[in-house]
Backbone:
């Protein structure tokens, strides 16, 4: 059913039907009542996208996540963020078009798909792997956009959590519990937010006069994370506090501790950057640095709509503080000496020396795995 069909049935022009639908003047009362009665009886609803196209708009914003769809919908960050964005957009009568990458090695596919044919009025874009090519295409097509996360190419129009603050909160929490030997399990160090989280722990250790924390970089794969934690516990058995710099690494971390017979929190305390509802139901429940994703998502949508309206947002960049959620994965540091191994030595590693993960300072793993928020 279209406006043309309504016009034919009411014996009026399409322009008359359009004026009635939009509440415009220039239509007689009798004609207006007849058209409205017909529309109501047929339960006719105009195609919002067609109306938008007639006005040069699509009534759709794009959401570009530079990861595969499979990873996007299973990460601890993006599904929650996507929910917030769609809710905020729906409240404004706007649709959201999601675009993900064909593979982690072809993130440009996420941009190509959504920008083809100017199908959107604006875009919210994940900052990971956002490069000069993508920036140039957005500017060339004059698409307003907001970046989620910090990117060295973008000085304004981005939203983010204070990653350094969150990492410092985690390190301070472990230090207050008496932990002096810390380790950090983090994603690829080419990502700005990973660098900020690692730096936050290092700065806290220096300020407190604690030893330099061991830093291990990994892809965001559960088994790879578990192998890295095994490497930490084997090479640095005195480590009693682990800062897991992304929620997607938590399961691998807990698995490795269990297989190495290191109890959490009896032998090792664990803090995650990122919270997730299921973290509260694990045994032990996971202490986390929670990102205020609802606030970040709402700020991204608000900023984008200001840009789409041709106005400069009141705040050109929004960086919100995280909060510490204390649960059962952290406890007081164990009583054995900081320089000694735990009372029950762990079993041998399940990988060869050639495949063992390397601490920070050695070449970092490729970004070909998963690189979430």
Residues:
């Amino acid at each position: 059913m279209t406006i043309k069909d309504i016009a034919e049935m009411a014996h009026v022009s399409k322009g008359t039907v359009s004026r009635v639908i939009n509440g415009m003047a220039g239509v007689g009362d009798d004609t207006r009542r007849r058209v409205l009665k017909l529309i109501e009886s047929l339960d006719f609803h105009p195609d919002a996208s067609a109306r938008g196209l007639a006005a040069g708009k699509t009534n759709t914003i794009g959401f570009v996540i530079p990861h595969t769809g499979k990873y996007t919908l299973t990460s601890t960050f993006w599904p929650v963020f996507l929910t917030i964005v769609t809710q905020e957009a729906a409240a404004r009568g706007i649709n959201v078009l999601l675009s993900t990458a064909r593979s982690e090695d072809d993130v440009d596919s996420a941009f190509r798909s959504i920008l083809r044919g100017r199908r959107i009025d604006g875009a919210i874009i994940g900052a990971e792997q956002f490069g000069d090519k993508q920036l140039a295409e957005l500017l060339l097509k004059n698409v307003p956009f907001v970046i989620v996360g910090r990117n060295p190419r973008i000085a304004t129009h981005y939203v983010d959590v204070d990653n350094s603050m969150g990492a410092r909160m985690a390190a301070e929490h472990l230090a207050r519990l008496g932990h002096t030997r810390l380790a950090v399990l983090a994603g690829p160090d080419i990502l700005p937010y990973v660098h900020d989280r690692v730096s936050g722990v290092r700065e806290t250790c220096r300020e407190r006069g604690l030893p330099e924390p061991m830093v291990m970089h990994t892809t965001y794969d559960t088994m790879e994370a578990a192998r890295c934690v095994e490497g930490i516990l084997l090479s640095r058995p005195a480590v009693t506090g682990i800062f897991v710099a992304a929620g997607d690494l938590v399961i691998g971390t807990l698995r490795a501790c269990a297989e190495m017979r290191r109890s959490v929190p009896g032998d090792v305390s664990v803090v995650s950057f990122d919270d997730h509802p299921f973290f509260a139901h694990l045994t032990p429940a996971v202490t986390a640095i929670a990102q205020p994703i609802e606030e970040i998502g709402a700020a991204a949508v608000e900023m984008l709509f200001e840009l789409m309206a041709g106005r400069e947002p009141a705040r050109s960049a929004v960086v919100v503080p995280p909060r510490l959620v204390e649960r059962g994965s952290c406890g007081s540091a164990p009583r054995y000496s900081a320089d000694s191994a735990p009372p029950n030595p762990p079993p041998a590693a399940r990988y060869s020396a050639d495949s063992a993960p390397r601490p920070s300072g050695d070449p970092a793993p490729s970004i070909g795995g998963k690189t979430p928020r």
In short: Residues 60-161+295-320 form a domain with the Rossmann fold fold (CATH 3.40.50.2300). DSSP finds 13 helices and twelve strands in the chain. The first helix runs from residue 3 to 10. The two ends are 44 Å apart (CA to CA).
